[in-house]
Amino acid sequence: MTDSSQVYVREVGPRDGLQHEQTWLDTADKLNWIEQLGEAGLTYIEITSFVSPSWIPALADADEVARTLKKSPGVTYAALVPNRKGLERALLANIDEVAIFLSASETHNQKNINADTESALARLSRVAEEARQSGKAVRGYLSMAFGCPYEGKVEVDEVERLAERLFEMGVTELSLGDTIGIAGPKQIEAVISRLGRMIPLERLALHPHNTYGTGLANIYAAFQLGIRRFDGSTGGIGGCPYARGASGNVATEDLVYLMQTLGAKTGNDLVRLTSSAQWIEKRLGRPLPSSQLQLSKEEGRCL
């Protein structure tokens, strides 16, 4: 029987967080940070992306990161894989889990992966099949599931159609991306309620962004519906370089704090997560939006 109080946090900072950064983070620092995240109790860490360095220069050291990482027992180390060439690199680096991605927006697919939606589905189907044949689990991302900066409204029918196609490929979990942070709780409820008719909720995750400050409210709405898998990025860093307005992810430590107030269990150490956010903030050389991080700096102050 599933424990309804157990929440699973998917840490995407080392990939989704860093891909948008202009400051280059040394490979040694990336490895240090990933190890810190594991020590904070995170059991799923997306460590990099095997895309062409010309597309995402910040992750040009993907092979070195994956091959030299000191792995902790009980932690799944995943990586984003765009195509068969990327999969070949991921398999050589012995990544634990492969993540494939698709947009619910035709225009965003063209801009993000230079392919129309149907061509992208055909490509991903081959990647997923080869990954599974190699003994790797496959996670799916469906971005722009709640709105697109180019097309505006994204129809729920299209989100449902593409979600079904991804599950047909064998993904074990599908993360619904509010890529530009435009959704509010009502829309989160509408989309998840619709998908929940055909997909078990334990196989759905939410990937929120906090562009308009609704990230935590959307997480709460999804939690109330039964979603127990959420993506977060330590410090709140990240975003999509191919989507206007896609600012940072919800900070992992803010997500964990919210879960604690709801009586949910994450197994994550909030103090260590916040310390890790402080560490990465110093390396990036700019203030990060995490509320827990800001509070840690102002500890002892009272107005």
UniProtKB/TrEMBL annotation:
| One GO-annotated biological process of the protein | ketone body biosynthetic process
Under the heading PROSITE patterns, the entry gives: PYR_CT
Keywords, A to Z?
Answer: Lyase, Metal-binding
What superkingdom heads the lineage? Bacteria
**InterPro entries noted in UniProt:** Aldolase_TIM, HMGL, PYR_CT
Pinpoint the Pyruvate carboxyltransferase domain residues: 7-274
Please report a single Pfam family linked to this protein. Answer: HMGL-like
Q: Which family does it belong to?
A: Belongs to the HMG-CoA lyase family.
Q: Can you say what this protein is called?
A: Hydroxymethylglutaryl-CoA lyase
Could you tell me which species this protein originates from? Halalkalibacter oceani
